[in-house]
Write a structure and sequence with these properties.
The chain has 358 residues and is α+β, with helices and mostly antiparallel strands. The chain folds into three domains: 85 residues, Rossmann fold, CATH 3.40.50.20; 62 residues, ATP-grasp fold, A domain (Dna Ligase, domain 1, 2-Layer Sandwich); 169 residues, 2-Layer Sandwich (D-amino Acid Aminotransferase, Chain A, domain 1), CATH 3.30.470. 28% of the residues lie in helices and 30% in strands. The protein has eleven helices and 18 strands. Strands 10, 11, 12, 13, 14, 15, 16, 17 and 18 form a nine-stranded antiparallel β-sheet that branches. A five-stranded parallel β-sheet has the order 3-2-1-4-5, with helices on both faces. Helix 3 links the parallel strand 4 and strand 5. The mean pLDDT is 96. It binds adenosine monophosphate. Adenosine monophosphate (AMP) binds next to strand 7 and strand 15.
Length: 358
């Protein structure tokens, strides 16, 4: 168990690293953050920082020598970079979780082997495999790169009746290994934020209902409009997933809800998740503090929620709405301190309390 004043290393200095650093500071821990950008948003709230590439072995060694435990804010850190560190310092979540989430084939196989359903998927090793897979998927699907996809990047929709989409997909599958996922006519998308402690205790937050725009999360509404069976299935999948991976920390799992209420896992993130940002406004302890508690080996907090709420992301130009958002006394604003506003860039979020529940 870490003591007040101990240091936590965070790989990645974006908004998630920043929110983790703020929570760590509130619990009396110090943070050292590694990021290649000299003006990374999280540096403003860290005690020390290292400007270096995520896979810079020397810099990671230095981070390990300065800290008691290392965690990360994004899943595309090379696994080998952390494997070499595991002797020197604890890395949470572990590299098994990291490796599983980095490759869509490994990730989907992991869920399917546990008896957890996903969209039907086909490993597209060669571009000429696309036509057969597309036919088996009923003519419609989404081609996704196996690795490095996020916020809808590295994917394209394919429709057998629209030759230009098939051409585009073939081009992408020529450039990099991909999977084809059957197109799911879901009724809604939901996610669960779950945490597991070093001694195996699991806590889950209430489920959020998510709306995406252009592949990027737009809003998370809590509670989600789902029935008890769906809720229980999501909790049970989270418990299985975290236990199987011997996971320590917070994880976000995203699902498609079928018309009959059953679930398909879309993907998981071995870190705090955008669809859990609402927890800072509607729960006593946010996902960020919960993650810090887990990796520091201190007891997890209860996850009960005191309000219904809607979290909305501020993307690019949405920053112009900040004065209006500030005029609502029931709304919590959180900006990420990014100096440059760019189209598609996450600049902040706000959570509107819609109703008190206790
Ligand atoms: P992803 O980056 O895989 O989370 O995909 C981004 C968004 O694209 C998801 O949140 C869905 O809205 C949509 N999407 C992804 N995969 C599928 C699928 N197999 N069928 C239908 N929509 C999908």
């Amino acid at each position: 168990m870490l003591q007040v004043g101990d240091k936590i290393g965070i790989v990645g200095g974006g908004q998630l690293g920043r929110m983790l650093a703020i929570s760590a500071g509130r619990l009396g821990f110090k943070t050292v953050i590694l990021d290649p950008q000299p003006n990374a948003p999280a540096f403003e709230f860290s005690h020390q920082h290292i400007v270096a590439a995520y896979d810079d072995a020397k810099a990671l060694q230095k981070l390990a020598s300065m800290t008691k435990v290392i965690t990360y804010e994004f899943e595309n850190v090379p696994v080998t970079a952390f494997d070499n560190l595991s002797d020197a310092v604890d890395v949470h979540p572990n590299t098994k979780a990291l490796a599983t989430s980095q490759d869509r084939v490994t990730e989907k196989s992991f869920f399917n082997n546990l008896g957890i359903n996903t969209a039907p998927w086909f490993d597209i090793i060669l571009p000429q495999m696309l036509d057969g897979a597309l036919k088996e998927s009923g003519g419609k699907g989404i081609l996704k790169t196996r690795r490095f996809g996020y916020d809808g990047k590295g994917q394209c929709r394919v429709d057998i009746n629209k030759p230009e989409t098939v051409m585009e997909a073939k081009k992408l599958s020529q450039e990099t290994p991909c999977i084809l996922e059957g197109f799911i006519d879901f009724t809604r998308e939901i996610s669960i934020i779950a945490a597991r402690s070093v001694d195996g205790i699991i806590e889950t937050y209430d489920i959020a209902e998510n709306i995406h725009r252009d592949g990027i999360l737009h809003t998370s509404t809590v509670p989600a409009n789902i029935n008890e069976n769906t809720t229980n299935e999501a909790i049970s999948i989270a418990q299985k997933t975290l236990s199987e991976l011997d996971y320590v920390g917070v994880m976000g799992i995203e699902f498609f809800v079928n018309p009959d209420g059953s679930l398909l896992v879309n993907e998981f993130a071995p870190r705090v998740h955008n669809s859990g940002h609402w927890t800072e406004a509607a729960c006593a302890v946010s996902q960020f503090e919960q993650h810090i508690r887990a990796v520091a080996g201190v007891p997890l907090a209860k996850t009960s929620r005191h309000s219904d709420c809607v979290m909305e992301n501020l993307i690019g130009d949405d920053m112009k709405n900040v004065p209006e958002i500030l005029s609502h006394s029931d709304t919590m604003l959180h900006l990420y301190g990014k100096s440059e506003t760019r189209a598609g860039r996450k600049m902040g979020h706000f959570t509107k309390i819609t109703q008190k529940t206790i």
